[in-house]
Design goal:
This protein is of the alpha/beta class. The protein contains 15 helices and eleven strands. The radius of gyration is 21 Å and the shape is globular. Bound molecules: glutamine (GLN).
């Protein structure tokens, strides 16, 4: 086999389809790496060994029999552990889901399998996707392959780590406020937060339902587009998924179009690491030299985004997580006690501190007397923020900014300071509130070698422009 770690998903699927590579060999290789390097990084919560080999055999058999195979034939893929997948533990990084094996596949997982992908494992994550460093995982944090002691970001830290370590060329994470783009930036890989409603949320364990989106991670723009292409589209099982006539993302990824790119001054303000800023400004200069128009813009509501996000996300989380009560899923404590006591003991033992904090915050902002002051007000400002983006995309095609204010930080650095942790979402959360797509692309490194993520944002359903600009930048860099 050619050097597996250097193969892209696009190359793998071409070689598997032509019979040059066997899907089983690839699956074995990926599983082997997962058991060794993946284990060292604590990047997986569980592996789907038997099922992966079964899927790979099915792909090889189809090819031998000259039957058609999908666009991800034989490509090893990993899924964040909040995406339901039959036959595997789906833990959400939480103790409360001990032993929970979902009875159905998430639409995203089902579409991947239909496309010929081989799902090798479920990746580590912050508990219920609440966190920015992977440190809230019940299973202990995943590590960043870039450097000893560095967090991989979160909450999809495991998904970013396994792509950065080249265990799989594609993985999937989920975003509520930046959980794909932020770990992608920290680990030096590509990550997409798609338009709200473009990848079905059916089978994604809910955190903040009006914000949640599944998103792919990959090592280059083309693989990212391919991963999105096979998973996006209307799903009758998710009433918020949108019937949109998606273009051929991989077919149209190369363009000689020149974009107008807005630089929001609010994303280059206090708190931004100067080396990160320098890398983003370098990307801007490179694009300008290539003939794109880079122009200053203003998004005045930016500094409200974190406040709105933590009200809306916690409110929705407090409601969504009410279902974990010891009756229906996973852990049950206090079996011999009366019902309310059993709920209470289960939730006390099953949820970690950060999840408890969010449930309490969320319950508070939804409670009578506070609903109007917090939740309603936040929802109104959220709508203004959405309109601010909408108006901006009448003038520019894309927005460029840093993906995160700093490069990857160290374990323990922000764990005792929730506010500092929350601020690492300040450039990503606005897109979730507005429902627009955003991408983080690795661009340059700071002096000590930590990667920098450059973020591009686009209008609703304009993922194509995101793939195109990132492809242009990867060619120019
Ligand atoms: N870090 C953010 C949070 O803790 C975002 C999480 C996410 O996108 N799932 O809420």
């Amino acid at each position: 086999m050619p050097d597996y770690k250097n193969l892209t998903a696009t190359q793998i699927t071409a070689m598997v389809t032509s019979g040059e590579l066997s899907a089983v060999d690839l699956a074995e290789k990926a599983l082997d790496l997962a058991r060794t390097e993946g284990k060292g990084l604590n990047a997986f919560i569980s592996l789907c060994e038997d099922k992966a080999l079964e899927q790979a055999r099915a792909v090889d058999t189809a090819i031998k029999q000259a039957q058609p195979v999908g666009p991800l034939a034989g490509v090893p893929v990993a899924l964040k552990d909040n995406i339901c997948y039959t036959g595997s533990l789906t833990s959400c990084g939480s103790h409360i889901l001990d032993g929970f094996v979902p009875p159905y596949d998430a639409t995203c997982a089902a579409r991947l399998v239909d496309a010929g992908a081989v799902i090798i494992g479920k990746t580590n994550m912050d508990e219920f996707a609440m966190g920015s460093s992977n440190e809230t995982s019940y299973y202990g944090p995943a590590k960043n392959p870039v450097g000893e002691n560095l967090v991989p970001g979160g909450s999809s830290g495991g998904s970013a780590a396994v792509v950065a370590q080249r265990i799989v060329p594609i993985s999937f994470g989920s975003e509520t406020g930046g959980s794909v783009r932020q770990p992608a930036a920290f680990c030096g890989v590509y990550g997409l937060k798609p338009t709200y409603g473009s990848i079905s949320r059916y089978g994604l364990v809910a955190f903040g339902s009006s914000l949640d989106q599944i998103g792919p991670l990959a090592r280059n723009a083309e693989d990212l587009a391919l991963a999105y292409q096979v998973t996006c589209g209307r799903d009758p099982n998710d009433s918020t998924s949108v019937a949109f006539d998606h273009p051929d993302y991989t077919g149209e990824i190369d363009t000689d179009r020149k974009f107008t790119i807005g630089v929001p001054k609010e994303y280059f303000a206090e708190g931004l690491d100067p080396e990160v800023e320098a890398a983003v400004r370098d990307a801007m200069a490179v694009l300008e030299k290539d003939g794109h128009k880079v122009t200053d813009i203003s998004l005045p509501l930016t500094d409200k985004a974190i406040a709105i996000y933590y009200i809306v996300a916690c409110a929705e989380a407090s409601s969504n997580l009410a279902r974990f009560d010891g009756v229906r899923y996973g852990l049950r404590e206090g079996r011999d006690k009366e019902l309310a006591q059993m709920y209470s003991e289960t939730r006390a033992a099953g949820f970690g501190d950060e999840v408890k904090r969010r449930i309490m915050l969320g319950t508070y902002v939804l409670s009578s007397g506070y609903y109007d002051a917090y939740y309603l007000k936040a929802s109104k400002v959220r709508e203004l923020l959405r309109r601010e983006f909408e108006r901006t995309f009448e003038e520019v095609d894309l927005i460029i900014s840093p993906a995160t204010p700093t490069p990857a930080f160290k374990f323990g650095e922000k764990l005792d300071d929730p506010l500092a942790m929350y601020l690492s979402d300040m450039y990503t959360a606005p897109a979730n509130l507005a429902g627009i797509p955003g991408i983080s692309t690795p661009y340059g490194r700071v002096g000590d070698g930590r990667p920098v993520g450059v973020q591009f944002l686009a209008g609703h359903f304009n993922e194509l422009s995101l793939f195109q600009i990132v492809r242009i930048l990867e060619r120019l860099a």
